[in-house]
Each structure stands twice: as C-alpha cells, then as structure tokens.
Amino acid sequence: MAMRAEILFPQDMAARGVAMLSAMIDAAPIPVKVREAYVGDCDLLMIYGNGHAIRRKSWAAHLQAGGRCVGWDLGYWRRELPDAAMRLMIDADHCTAMIRPEPASRWDATRIPECARTPAAAIFC
Fold first, then answer.
1. For 33, phi and psi rounded to 5 degrees?
2. Are strands 44-48 and 68-74 parallel, antiparallel or unpaired?
3. Do 74 and 16 meet the contact criterion of CB atoms below 8 Å apart?
C-alpha cells in the first residue's frame, strides 16, 4: 500500500498556514486526506502551528501510534515580515539532526539572541 498523508486544515488556521498547506496539498506526490479534525488513518500527519492545543494532541497521538509527523510554523526570527521564513519540524518540535546534522555550536557566530539550547539544537527568539 502506498504511503498516504493526512493534512489538518482547520478553519481557524493563520493565513501563512493556509498558504503553506495549500501549496503542500497541490504539490503532494502521495495521496492526501485534507481534514479539519485528526483521524489518524494515514502514515504521515502534516500540520501548521504545532503549539495549538488541539493540533498538539493530534501530533502526539500520531507519533504514539507509530506514525510520522511533519509540521510547519513561523521561523525563529524576523517573524513579523510577510515573507518570513517557515520552520520545518519532522517528528519533533524543533529542527532535528535529520534536517541539519551540524552541531548546535554552528549558531555561535550568528550573534542572533539565543533563548535556550538543547543537546540537539539551539532555540532562538
């Protein structure tokens, strides 16, 4: 059976989320189920806004069931710009070694204010 994706597309989603997930739906190379509420019958769950209470529960339930999750959200800095970068999350709340295998110390030279650092990645405001 081919991989399938469930994309949560709630009515209260921010405009950036609508734009990003609409593009993902249009470009999807696999079958996609677009839903307002989580069902959990697909291999992959894609959401925008992982911090939202309901989407967060869906994310956790999907991972617990052995599924894979892809999340989109605002980037770490310059969030106020209309064309600001988006951040990609794969099975975790923040960028993982799957995306950028370099050590977190790579950020030291950027002089971007740091809020927190974990063993896997730095988190910036």
1. -105, 115
2. parallel
3. yes
Separation of alpha carbons 105 and 15, rounded Å? 34
Residue 102 burial (10 A CB sphere; 0-12, 13-18, 19+): exposed
What's the whole-model pTM score? 0.74
| 28: its two tokens | 């999807």
Domain segments of the chain: what residues? 5-93, 98-125
Pick the CATH number of 5-93 from 3.40.50, 3.30.700, 1.10.240, 3.30.750: 3.40.50
Q: What is the pLDDT along the chain (125 residues), one digit of tens a residue?
A: 689 999 999 998 888 889 889 999 999 999 999 999 999 999 999 999 888 888 889 999 999 999 999 999 877 667 777 767 788 888 887 766 555 666 666 666 666 555 544 444 444 43
Identity (one letter) of the amino acid at 5? A
